[in-house]
Structure prediction request, 445 residues.
Amino acid sequence: MATIGASAHSATNNLESFWMPFTANRQFKQQPRMFVSAKDMHYTTAEGKQVLDGTAGLWCCNAGHARPRVVEAVQRQVEELDYAPAFQMGHPKAFELASRLTALMPGDLDYAFFTNSGSESVDTALKIALAYQRAIGQGTRTRLIGRERGYHGVGFGGISVGGIVKNRMHFGTLLAGTDHISHTHDLEHNAYSRGQPAWGAHLADDLEKLVALHDASTIAAVIVEPVAGSTGVLIPPQGYLERLRKICDRHGILLIFDEVITGFGRLGAPFATDYFGVMPDMITCAKGLTSGVVPMGAVICRKGIYDAFMDAPENTIELFHGYTYSGHPLAAAAGVATLDTYQEEGLFERAAELSPYWEEALHALKGHPHVIDLRNLGLIGAIELEPIANKPTARAFDAFLRCYEEGVLIRTTGDIIALSPPLIVEKAQIDRIFDTLSKVLKQAH
Ligand SMILES: Cc1ncc(COP(=O)(O)O)c(C=O)c1O
Prediction:
């Protein structure tokens, strides 16, 4: 075991061994930002400072932090049943959560397959899409279509259909047989839109181009985030998702909504499918499923997809896929208690009620130095900044550090600041987030 100063390997501050994800490791370790506890809307740092959570952790703590129902449920569960094998065995909490989750869904989105993260949900959904097409005699449909600037986690499936260059360029040839429709971000037409931009529904027709290029008989599925989150909050133009759905229907292509961020009330409705009134064939989710308390994800499938696998004799395994921790007891207990919390506190409705206030507060930043766009939907907001010449990301990251010093947690991607507070946020806390941003942006270089 490393002791302080014992070898070159052991860092003086013992932060060395943890290779942190999506982090500038060397910079962080020189000046660490450590959270040691959290409650409701606030984190506490190692120095004892309170930091207001403007990002629900990483878009996941939708119910806020350390909520009593969830904490108690996990504590109770770990004493009662810590683990049960996930294959050929079951435990009641996973079935309860699947029933509760699918009951939240519109239409015949009736079946939930559990995973442990958004990345696993995406790879699971892509695999189900391929296996489904094969099961219904459409085995030539092997192509998977994503969208430029899409983020679907970090598995090979997810980065292959994803459209964020840095997440793809270092990792070889990725999955064969993927392609991408164009993203919908267009500042010339849509800057400062409130809610859904009016321009851009026709961008969905890009899918028709790919159908013309590859032929529909080679395409299994299209996956998109209804609102692209991690790439910097790209709100779908009015009519865009509806059009995408129609094109998929016309050509027998499955439509997957990646709702890892938009699920569980983020838009002021249970899911984006409810908010936009567009039904996908599968939904991937994670994050808000347990409010971030225990890692868990799920793929929710329409009945026809599940049924297509149920033709073989009853003693055969229908889908050769799953994880040791699919439906883990602690995660399932956290999930049920989280859904209870959302319901009892009316948090999805609360998000809808707060969203006009949120929109006003965000758009009040118009005219601040370097701001080139503001966009919002539900309790999501983004501030796009003009990058510093030859120093992309520096301006937004500087704002992130200054906000942190001021006691407010924001998130940046490129030169875009993304905001997504827990749904328990109070109006005064929304004011605090935007007052801090206003101050920080006015001081920006
Ligand atoms: C839309 C979307 N899909 C997938 C993922 C990956 O989730 P995870 O980090 O839990 O693997 C994310 C994470 O931010 C996401 O936003």
